[in-house]
Amino acid sequence: MAEAVSVRVLIADDHLRFRKAVRDFLDLQDDVEVVGEAENGRHATELADELAPDVVLMDVRMPEMDGVEATRIILSRHPATKVIALSLHDDDAHRAAMRQAGAAAYVVKDQTGQALLPAIRSLANAGVDL
Description:
With 130 residues, the chain is an alpha/beta fold. It has one domain: Response regulator (Rossmann fold), CATH 3.40.50. The protein is built from 5 helices and 5 strands; from the N terminus they run βαβαβαβαβα. Helix 3 packs parallel to helix 4. The radius of gyration is 13 Å and the shape is globular. The N and C termini lie far apart (27 Å).
């Protein structure tokens, strides 16, 4: 049996508790490695340059630089990186903004437990947009 490939993930969210909960959940997975955490979009772009993650979990609304602009910047510099938008808002406007910025998937935070891991694995393993 082939050894599982570790997906390198960067978590970008301004809420420390949420970042910690997501990290704790992902740390339990054998095929996912959390390589960093950012508290705002500007920090996310810096860490993406430094760490070259496979997947960025990007909160849509953050201080200093929102997730939409951070996604544009990261994908312009690292087109192979996949961005999964995370938001409390389940509406067309936020989804459309993140899609236009290049996000490959959109997960509503109250569905994170069910939807996040399948999205990460799908993007990393198949390399296709969701």
